[in-house]
Amino acid sequence: MNSLRLAFRMLARDLRTGEMTVLAVALVLAVAALTGVGFLSDRVQRVVEREAHQLLGGDLLLSADHPWDERYKEAARLRGLRIAESASFPSMVASAAEGGGVQLAEIKAVSPDYPLRGALRIAPYLHAPDAEAVGEDKTPRSGTVWPDERLAAALGVAPPQQLKVGAGETAVAAIVTHEPDRGINPFSIAPRLIIPLADLPATGLLQPGSRVTWRLHLAGEAAAVADFRRWAQKQLGRGERIEGLEDARPEIRNIVDRAQRFLRLAALLTVVLAAVAVGLSARRYMQTHLDACAVMRCLGASERQILLIHGGAFVLLGLVAILLGGVLGYLLQMLLHAFLAGLVAGDLPPPGVLPWLQGLAVGIVLVVGFVLPPLLRLKAVPTVRVLRREWGETAPLSAVSYLAGAACLAGLMFWMAGDARLGSVVLGGFVLAVGAFALLGQLLLIAVWRLFAGRAVGGWRIGLANLRRRSGAALVQAVALALGLTTLLLLTLARADLLSAWQARVPPDAPNRFVINIQPDQREALAVFFSAHGLVAPRQEPMVRGRLMRLNGRAIQPRDFIDERAQRLIEREFNLSARSDLPAGNKIVAGRWHGDESAAQFSVEKGLADTLNLHVGDELEFMIAGAPVVGRISSLRKLDWDSMQVNFFVIAPDGNLAGHPTSYITSFYLPEGRNAVIDALVREFPNLTVIDVAALLRQLQTTLDQVVRAVQAVFAFALLAGLAVLYAALQASAGERRHELAVLRALGGRHRQLQVSLVAEFAALGAIAGLLAGIAATALGTALARWVFQLDYLPSPWMLATGLAGGIAGVVLAGLSTTRRACSERVADGLRNA
Fold first, then answer.
1. How far, in Å, CA of 756 to CA of 809, rounded?
2. Three-state SS for 204?
């Protein structure tokens, strides 16, 4: 009890004097960042699990790019399973009213039994109270459709108005407010229109080459579902897949996981920087309490009592910081949820207890891993230090304790990352960055001394000499500041440069509309339509859908590839085209263009070739409508995707794909204010799908901006943690610097001379850190542009200048603020208290 009381008193005193302020701030930031991201991730995960059955519309979902064979339905019925069917595809929908609008929609045709789990919710008109669709009216009746709220608002329709769907008109019977397939709705590019499956043939929308996803929804007893899945797994053919509760809506999970991964990385950086700040603060605490502990040892205090007193103070501080960080993290996740309103569902369930436990574990790991080693050194201070102060001060800390702290940090990073691969990349990158900064920083410290020490006089020479003498502490400060400045530069200058480079690659008159599903007998009429409306008739490219079956005579399967993208490419059908001239924006990088040759051969996009490990001369066999087409790769092409022109992964010689089911695709530029042309186009050619690329890009950019704002909110914690590291690093040598200033003043040093020496020391340190940050931000920005965004990016010369100026200004201002009192206090106080 006596030790606990002393721990309370010591904690209160150290908080009043500011000895533990940095450490407390670092702990709060680390716990808040991790729990904030953890709360949001936990809530999203819980809603995914809660709505897993509804996301499938049943207990098991079978998807294919063709109608399912009757034997699957018969096998399901034999096992007592209920069956529902649906088909989804994009198409244009128009209001039948005079001057009505046109909208790209995702049409979903459903059978009367859909859905098997969950229920559709409908309203009689927009913004009216909704209710579950039940009984015979659980899906639209024949001759009616149900648009969702977005589609009804975009077209300005309400029951019982008419919609043009394909070749006919049909009545709006209700407004869909909720459907099971959209429990979580990221990247909702097109609104939804639900129609009866029996009415689908009458629309005339399904044409050769149409992209339709056919689904079977199954529900029943768990044992029967599992038995059917085992049977069906062995029967699956190309383009067919099964989704269960563990892999429901993988595209949704991937997008949400990617956003959460960015947030976790930002939180991870916060914890890493906080760990450095905690370690530096704990070491500073140990140095300032060595004398007091030596006196306590002389008065009979045991090592155990000293450890209990000081360790108890840290434990109490850690518990308060963890509690405060958890509360702040809960408020942070509410902010993140607001930023990600368009990415995650609005009715998230309350968070569980796991994020609280994670925050507690983070605080414990930081306290134990980075505070315990200095405390072990503090309890072992020799009593002779009372007479000889150098005893116990220069002795190195236990290497074992430092290794334990590093192991705790590594384990924490792996745990936070969520998977070994991500943890390895982050940990390896952090170690490499610190190592590179340390090596370059040491070289720069030596260069600064050799270049400027001989020319400097007065306070400037004193400052550079101090920097050289404390090279170890200076190196730590430079590395810490360089990490913070690199992050800041990437979030500001590099990001702006990348966006500018991307925008510069898209010409002002780049095509902003794509038209697909053009049938061969519509090509001439479509060209006449464009001419009649004063538009340049765009080139219509043939498009044939084929599946890659064999490579060099060997059958290939998705399981033959490790890369997930390669597996998806093998699973899906390719869009093949044919032409004799090289498309604009295409560049041959290997082999030669086939030109007018008629022999069966293919030109393949280089990125696709790299993913599937294809080379010039390889033989490919595509299956097109049941007929094999074989040819060798004659060339590899690099495409300019930013041109917004129609591009294809695989191109054959002109006429090589004749005789196979062919549709056509084109793109064109539509000036602002001429949307009436699209309305007329869809009315004259109802089977065509017009994709407004500009609208899609705007919506995609809006969603990405939401993620960026959320990530930046968490990165703000990282920047604050970086400032805490800077302050802690400067404070680590404050006692030594205070003593030096007192000695210089005792030897006749003037106040201005001392100020100049401090400015020289901090300016040199800031210049080194800023230069390192500028180099790192430039390298990372260039790597992102070339390897991730494929941009012709020239690093801004302002990157190095901004890093250099920011480093000098930041360190000088922060350093002078920490030494302001030391320059003006009495010499005796400086010598006694340092």
1. 15
2. coil
